[in-house]
Amino acid sequence: MPSKIGTIFNFNQLPDVSKFPFVINKRRDGILVKKGLFVFTKSNEGYLIGIIEQIILLNEYFSDALTIKSYNSNNNPNILKGLFPSDDFEFATAIVRCLGIIEFKNGDNSEIKTIKRMSYPANPGADVYLLEENIFNQFIGLDIKRGLHLGQIKVSYFDAKINMDRLLNKHFAILSISGGGKSYLTSILIEELLTRDPSYGNPAIILIDVHGEYLYLKDVPQIKDKVSIQDISYFQISVPNLNAWWFRKYQDQISNVQVRELSKYIQNMQKNKGKNGNYTLQDILDFIENDSEGSKSTKQALIGWLSDLNRLTLFGPQENPLIANIVNQNQITIFNLANEISIRKKQIIIDYLCNRLFYLRRTDNIPPFLLIVEEAHQFCPEAAHSKAISKSIIETIAREGRKFMACLCLISQRPKKLSATVLSQLNSKMVLNIKNPYDLKHLMDSSEAISKEYADMISSLGVGEMLLIGNAVNYPIFIDIRERQFKSKIENLSLTDICLKWEKTS
Predict the structure, then answer these.
(1) Which end of the chain is more exposed for a tag (fewer CB within 10 A), N or C?
(2) Which helix (H) or strand (E) covers residue 205, if one does?
(3) How many other β-carbons are positioned within 10 Å of the β-carbon of residue 252?
(4) What is the spatial distance between Cα 82 and Cα 74, in angstroms, rounded to a whole number?
(5) Beta bridge partners of residue 172, listed in sequence order
(6) Which long-range contacts (CB under 8 A, 24 or more apart) does 289-292 make?
(7) pLDDT grade, residue 447 (50/70/90)?
(8) Which tens digits make up the pLDDT trace of 206-237?
(9) What is residue 182's DSSP assignment?
């Protein structure tokens, strides 16, 4: 039996189609009615679901200044209680924002058939009840049996179990200020995916770890067999798989004329080496230098540009690691970029990796995957003048990846610096604390679901709190993030601890 918490009444031209007020019952069952609770009432259209967005405490005795003056001037508490029985006249009202009308499949009101918009106000005098967990889960679109357990719904304290298909298949973002808990939340998502029953159907996970924050996963006994660490010190791009336009992408000073000439050199190189022959970038350079027929100026320019690429030590005769061999279902592959400083080199690695992953997935040579990119604003920036090498392929996956079950998660502390094109394609957003007004405005501009009201709430979120909004749920919800199951050894280390343990090495 649902718990009755109040009665609808007329207040400030309410109820209307979008809101209704109710007087909160004085309760003795321990239930405290708070802002953020989900409630329902029976209306002319059916069961009306709403969320309490404001609570007002009223007392007629303290609505008049003279009464308050008399109250404060009398020092005898016994006389005060007789003259001013203020407690008897105190009452609380709640303002509820209407979310939708539900229709049930059968008479027992246990399974929702449809959800539709309101077109008629709630009825004054109608009772208001707390929304029960079963109906709440269906209404919000949670998946209690197979969902990813991220924490608890704020105020209601129901488990927040998010449907994996709805979250991953249309891409999502994790956004917060530095130190706001982005990596912590990402670790929880990884825990859920790696410990999930394989019979449910789990994707492969590829994680671009810019700061080495997830390397601890390899030391967790329960999942270490599912974790592969790839050190990019040994990362190699297969030169025989590249055409002239790839080199143009990585070295944009190469002109169209030079691209045409480079194409001829590569074709001749392939003829000399045979169909399956391997060769390096240095081999191409030697081939160009020994050519006696080409334009001298074009040759010199190409040698200069390609030598610059060769110094990056990223180009080899074969791909390493072989991407098709390291992407497996129910496993995570972590590319550790912690020791790489050059942003250009990191962008080339991510561009090649994303292109290969997307190609292999389109040709069904690897399983469906989730690609997680940390510090995404470095690799897919918004600024038009920024020529981030990896930007184009990330935007392509954001636009087209869902057709091929190539799922994308971008993590950033600066939404304003993240491509608005990509941000608009990330259908779900996990937003932790963001205070910068420019970042909040960029979020509102790129997502219709984030209103000024939600932006104000985002700026006041505490550590461990987040707003989940978008395709993953039917309506935005605030979640208290759970503690992660697998903890890093350095998780609780402070600056003082590091300073005390530090020793200079020769």
Answers:
(1) C
(2) strand 204-209
(3) 11
(4) 12
(5) 409, 428
(6) 291/265
(7) confident
(8) 999 999 999 999 999 999 999 999 999 899 99
(9) H
